[in-house]
Design brief:
By secondary structure, this protein is an alpha+beta fold. The protein has two domains: 31 residues, no CATH class; 133 residues, no CATH class. Helix 3 crosses helix 4, helix 3 crosses helix 6 and helix 5 packs across helix 6. It starts with a strand and ends in a 6-residue tail after the last helix.
């Protein structure tokens, strides 16, 4: 939120009785809700040393998902990158201008994060075609991701495919995220 206020800078004793006189008096204010850096929320992430956590020391990244599908996305997702995995940490440092190796790493992380999010959503019975999640919620974000990856397909059909043929589901998801394709 961006709050803008016009305030009286100093005390005025010469004004009319109905005029503001105290320093700091709010003369006008406005509040706007806006998103910085594009029109979508940024994915929350942190670079940490996995040796100081319960995660495997040699894992490159870990996506944490917490809260219900009604929870705010920004408070429910956290991508942790292991600073000891220099290839992955460097790929994220170079994300604005990635080298070929960085593109490969970022593609793998994106594919894995999408898989984890979709699997998490499909595992929740409240995640359905007729679901109505609040804007900015984890459920709304996952519905949007689902629609992007599986356009024209039903949640029920994809959930059945995941349960009956996990390997085929994994291949479908890999194709949907266009892993390792140059964009």
């Amino acid at each position: 939120m961006l709050d803008t206020a016009l305030v009286l800078a100093e005390r005025r004793s010469d004004g009319r009785p109905s005029s503001p006189r105290r320093a700091g008096s709010v003369l006008w204010s406005d509040r706007e809700l806006l998103r910085l850096q594009g029109d979508a929320p940024q994915f929350p992430m942190a670079v940490i040393d996995f040796a100081r956590t319960s995660f495997p020391d040699h894992a490159a990244w870990h996506l944490q998902i917490s809260g219900s599908l009604e929870s705010a996305t920004m408070g429910s997702l956290l991508l942790l990158v292991n600073e000891r995995n220099t290839v992955t940490a460097t790929a994220f440092e170079n994300a604005g201008k990635p080298r070929p190796v960085d593109r490969i790493v970022l593609s793998a992380v994106y594919a894995d994060a999408a898989r984890i999010m979709i699997e998490h959503a499909l595992g929740n019975e409240d995640f359905a075609e007729d679901s109505d999640f609040p804007e900015g919620s984890l459920g709304a974000t996952m519905l949007s991701l689902f629609d992007q990856l599986f356009p024209g397909q039903s949640i029920t059909d994809i959930r059945l495919r995941q349960r009956q043929s996990p390997a085929l589901f994994a291949s479908d998801l890999q194709a949907a995220v266009k892993i390792f394709e140059v964009s």
